[in-house]
Amino acid sequence: MHELGVVFYIIRDVKAVAEENHVQKVHSVTLEIGEVSTVIPHLLEDCWNWAVKREPIMDAAKLKVEQIDAVTYCEDCKGTYPTVQYGKICPLCGSEHTYLLKGNEVSIKEIEAT
Amino acid sequence: MDEVKIIEIKKSVFADNDADAAKLREELKRKGVFLLNLMSSPGSGKTTTLIKTINLLKDKLRVAVMEADIDSDVDAKKILAATGVQSIQLHTGGMCHLDAEMTRQGLDGLALDDVDLCILENVGNLVCPAEFDTGATKNCMILSVPEGDDKPLKYPLMFSVCDLVLINKIDVAKYFDFDIERCKGYIRMRNPRAEVIEISALTGEGVDKFAAWLIDQVRKQREEK
Ligand SMILES: Nc1nc2c(ncn2[C@@H]2O[C@H](COP(=O)(O)OP(=O)(O)O)[C@@H](O)[C@H]2O)c(=O)[nH]1
Ligand SMILES: [Mg+2]
Ligand SMILES: [Zn+2]
Ligand SMILES: [Zn+2]
Q1: Ligand 1: which of B48, B143, B171, B178 to mutate, judged by most atoms within 8 Å of the beta carbon?
Q2: H or E element at residue A65
């Protein structure tokens, strides 16, 4: 849904990095996307393919997505468990005092450029 | 042919916006302006709630409104006509959310020296606005009865960023299988700190509680200085 907004942010960041590093062409951009982030990879790719065409420095850049599994930590039993399967309630002890350790990231890992 | 090099970035896509938002929040605090970010699905009752609430508040606080409904200025005019307070339309260019930069541009269009409370009616949807910090002092969302009591399970991020959840359209609760207590339980699961107020923007029931909450929040922000 807001993948286009995210794509604009990525393009802005990548262009800044490309300029800093004096590169001519960006060939790929690798993202890390958490399993419970609000970004849907295939929609992101559609927006990406549309938006990068308008950016000469990265008009053929490929988008690579690495998914990060979501893991929740339980403050009561100090255990961790997969978020998507069990949600907010700890399957080990039944506590609600849990928080997400990882899995909501939307970040730029690296780019390939010449 | 130049060799391909890999440049490591390791940066959250939202980092710049989060920093912008934090800065805006600080500036607003210094100016003594409380900004409420109001979010919901389309049709949950944001505009109706705003009008009812502002009419209860406008003798006590100087209120302004920023409207971000996509592609229309119907709401900004409606609010001006119904309440007489400063209101402007933000143009999001079809975007499904506002970020801190767009919010700042909107605020620049208001006479902020004459404002205690500014309410931002965000774009209607439960996904995008949750991800983009606008710089608002507090976040509030409206969940209306016809949408169902399981929304906190389906839109966890939205519920986790909200300081206040308004359950609206309680006047029609008897026609829906919406269980208010169950819904509050789900909200607590997502966000134990969120407050919940039940309202009907149509009949006005509970709107006084929301108005009192706002007055209290504005006072708290002032005292923090
Ligand atoms: N029954 C009932 N209808 C409401 C209530 N609040 C809003 N509505 C109606 O819901 C529709 C959408 O409201 P609106 O304020 O425009 O929603 P927005 O899109 O979130 O700004 C309108 O027809 C309102 O009259 C309420 O508390 N009860
Ligand atoms: Mg509206
Ligand atoms: Zn969006
Ligand atoms: Zn546990």
Answers
A1: B48
A2: strand A62-68
Q: Do A111 and B6 touch (CB under 8 A)?
A: yes
* CATH at residue B58: 3.40.50.300
A38/B contact by beta carbon, under 8 A:
yes
Q: Are A112 and A26 in contact (CB under 8 A)?
A: yes
Using an 8 Å Cβ cutoff, are A82 and A16 in contact? no
The predicted model scores a pTM of 0.87
- Minimum-distance CB partner of B3 among A96, A110, A114: A114
* Per-residue pLDDT tens digits for B171-223: 999 999 999 999 999 999 889 899 999 999 999 999 999 999 999 999 999 99
The identity of residue B5, as a single letter, is: K
Cα of B177 vs centre of ligand 2, distance in Å, is 25
Q: What's the domain range around B20?
A: 15-224
Q: State which residues form the domain around A45.
A: 3-113
Q: Which residues of chain B have pLDDT under 70?
A: 1, 69-73, 225
Pairwise CA distance, residues B135 & B92, whole Å: 16
B191 touches A at CB < 8 Å? no
In angstroms, rounded to a whole number, what is the distance separating the alpha carbons of residues A82 and A84? 6
